[in-house]
Amino acid sequence: MQCSNQLRQFALGLHNYHTANETLPAGGYCPSGGGSCPDISLCHTWFESLLPYIEQQALYDQIDFSVPTNAEPNASLLTGLIVPGVNCPSDSGSKLVDHDRLNPAGSCGGCDYATGPAGTSSVGASYSPSGGPLNMNGCAVPAWGDGRNCQSANGGSRDNGAPGMFAAGPIAYTFDDCQDGTSNTFLIGETLPKWTNFMLYFNSHLSAASTNAPPNYFKVNPQNCENPAPCYTEGNPPGNPGRGCIPDRSGFNSLHPGGLMMAMTDGSVHFFSESVDYETWVFLGDRSDREVVSWK
To answer: At residue 243, what are phi and psi to the nearest 5 degrees?
Structure first.
């Protein structure tokens, strides 16, 4: 119940953000200068944009959005910071996640999405926005013939866009873009920070989760993807050991028995079973596939 209430507060915050700005926040906002990877790895996030709408205005005011997240004052502010009410109480490992991204000397050329050599940490994302059936540098479930269960590229980062309500990059969507109806399209749902430690509240790489993988896919196909993950080099094809387990880690997951919680774009929160029909799961992630699905 507490997790459901927290997810509902996120959905309400996103609705209030949309009312104020006439759009949802983008998945990532990248400063124009400085930083080792200003185009993706050290960008600011949808979560930071949402802070004033989830009663965290004071924290928002301390962040310098003109510099990357690993530059000061952001690095010192965000390292080790725990934000109340943003982590699922069922997941004891959901708060601080080790990584190297807030290290000012860090680089996006190494294992900065796995356990970082510098041992820096920040709060992991127990709730991630839905990118729909995204290609997350590969597909956990192979693409259908028409490709609808594995779309876009690189998790929708940079300018790739996404089929869902969020992309990892600077492209932002509005409720008007939700052509399938707000009650039939995912907005935000549960993720496991220790399983998906490149989804962090204060770093934007692959910040939108994919519905390519079924819910709680980590139970079905662990593939030795527990931390620390292998280094990942962008562009490595599926099957390359350097690719790591990013596609398998990129879906929605929780430790609730039998399923997980998802908030729809209309703000309602529902529990989805691990046994939900896969096509239904994929179609609920896509905001404009025009598929009629029965799921309630």
So the answer is: -75, -20
CA distances from 179 to 36, 163, 214 (A): 38, 11, 23
Helices of type H across 213-263: 217-220, 246-249
| Domain layout of the chain by residue ranges | 1-296
What strand order describes the sheet that includes 127-129?
127-129, 186-190, 259-264, 269-273
Bond into 237 cis (ω within 30): no
User: pTM of this prediction?
Assistant: 0.90
Q: How far apart are the first and last CA of the chain?
A: 19
pLDDT means over runs of 10, the chain (296 residues): 94 98 93 53 90 98 90 90 91 78 60 47 92 93 96 90 95 97 97 82 87 91 52 38 67 94 97 96 97 86
Distance of alpha carbon 177 from alpha carbon 197, whole angstroms: 29
Question: What does DSSP assign to residue 134?
Answer: B
Task: List alpha helices for the chain, DSSP H.
Answer: 2-21, 46-50, 57-62, 74-78, 217-220, 246-249, 278-285
Q: Which long-range contacts (CB under 8 A, 24 or more apart) does 154-162 make?
A: 154/206, 154/234, 155/131, 155/205, 155/206, 155/207, 155/208, 155/210, 155/250, 156/27, 156/131, 156/208, 157/27, 157/28, 157/40, 157/204, 157/205, 157/206, 158/39, 158/40, 162/131, 162/132, 162/134, 162/208
Residues in the chain: 296
CB 196 within 8 Å of CB 173 = no
What are the φ and ψ backbone dihedral angles of 111, each rounded to 5 degrees?
A: -90, 50
Q: How far is CA 295 from CA 187, 236, 282, in A?
A: 16, 36, 12
